[in-house]
Amino acid sequence: MGLASACGPDTAEPAGQGLVLVRSVEGSNEIVRVRLRDAAERAVTSTPEREESWPFWSSDAGQLVFQVGSERSGSELMLWSSPSGERPLTQTANRVEHWPVWSPMGSRLAYAFLAAGASGGITVVDTQTGESRVLANEDSSDQLIRPGFSPDGASLVMQRRGAERGSSLWIARPGLPLRPLTAGDAWFDIKPYFSRDGERIFFSRRSATGGPNDVMSVTLAGNELRSHTSLPDADDHSARPSPTRDEIAFVSNREGYPAVYLAPLPDGPARRLSPPEMAALAPRWSADGERILVTSTPASAPLPRLSDPASLTAARVAVFDRQGQVLLDAPGMMPDWMPAWP
User: Fold this and answer.
1) From the CB of residue 139, how many other CB atoms can be counted at a distance below 10 Å?
2) pLDDT tens per residue, range 74-90
3) Which of 12, 26, 187, 294 has its CB surrounded by the most CB atoms within 10 Å?
């Protein structure tokens, strides 16, 4: 089977009123929509012969992008919209396409690719016109991954991961060549996200030799490096700036298990948002900055890993507000905000 038939219009409610996520259905990963107000569900895909992952929605484009396949066997990106159904983003064979992210404005999409026997890079494509450009990786031993747009959609930050050394952040700005924001083999810098004013980039940093992460930020010029909310022995990472307030949501194990915390910027005290019985990962803000979406497990259970099918079936998706009240708790993983149907 292909596209499920029970998918209605996508503009009936704001994106903060609905979710899209991945769920294991009889051993196959499928994409499901969930309505926040009553936890009602609708299937997007029903494809036992293939595996779907990482769905991301764009209200401007009116489309969902998701990954089919795996990095080991090759993967491609698909687009879905209602009522048109799904189509491949590209027609390029024998390469891995992953880490898709939508521009906050318009129908542009950036993603990372790795071609068989060649270096990879980042492609930016307009899903309406098909116009695209490639930010190439000149060093075939490195990979460009995890692209992220600035709030105005003009700039793009990404991670450059070395084959045998650290990881640095790079930025592409209009009219300027691709250049490094952070550098040095001593550090492993990952998960970059722009601040809501577009002036700073928040990211996770640890030593290239291992150890806990710290929440850091840097200006677009690559200077004024700052540490935020981090504790010396805690693993603090995955910081996401609020789209409406000067604050960040981030993950920390400072209480013995991964939980989501909220901290005012630049250096306010952090408070735990996720409930004490929940291990929470990968926070994602709603557009109004009032809710946070996470992948979760019980605090005593193993964290979900793609290499561990049993942990994936136990994964859940939770939504809570800025006071920590749980608004939804449902089976699934890899969630994103998406408008609910009427």
Assistant:
1) 12
2) 789 999 998 889 999 98
3) 294
